[in-house]
């Protein structure tokens, strides 16, 4: 009987769940690659590879955003059972809005920094992402890089809040918030 009750619980649609977890993996990889880069000596092939992997993961995050928003809009959000307090729902919506803005702004800032610095996202086989900026501007690249890095540090906390809230809902509130995404 418990199995039937669990199966009847509303969950996010399969595409929404898959895109969520794929996005999680790409964001985690982007953070991992850029953090590892800091431990590798400048000018080494490994450091350059880690930077490119960071760029690929960030580009993947950006490319997944539109399908993710579309899937979420198409399939909707299942209700939380039992219904949380209004302030908790509001905080959840604000956190999700911040996360979605981050998924848009952070990769775009990364591309701007890279292209202002005269670089590009290179793919195997000699393919490269075309530049959409007229000319490099290293000074401006540095300014945008500071913003990109600061947002990245802020979002460690926002992502942590998102994870902590999911765990709190599961273990303390004992509602189905986390189960909806599993």
UniProtKB/TrEMBL annotation:
GO BP term, example: respiratory electron transport chain
Keywords assigned: Cell membrane, Electron transport, Heme, Iron, Membrane, Metal-binding, Transmembrane, Transmembrane helix, Transport
GO cellular component: plasma membrane
Domain Cytochrome b561 bacterial/Ni-hydrogenase: 11-182
Membrane-topology descriptor: Multi-pass membrane protein
Location relative to the cell: Cell membrane
GO molecular function: electron transfer activity; heme binding; metal ion binding
Cofactor annotation: heme b
Membrane-crossing segments per the record: 12-33, 53-71, 97-116, 154-172
Pfam family, one: Ni_hydr_CYTB
Entries under SUPFAM superfamilies matching the protein: Transmembrane di-heme cytochromes
Family: Belongs to the cytochrome b561 family.
Protein name (Swiss-Prot/TrEMBL): Cytochrome B561
Organism: Mizugakiibacter sediminis
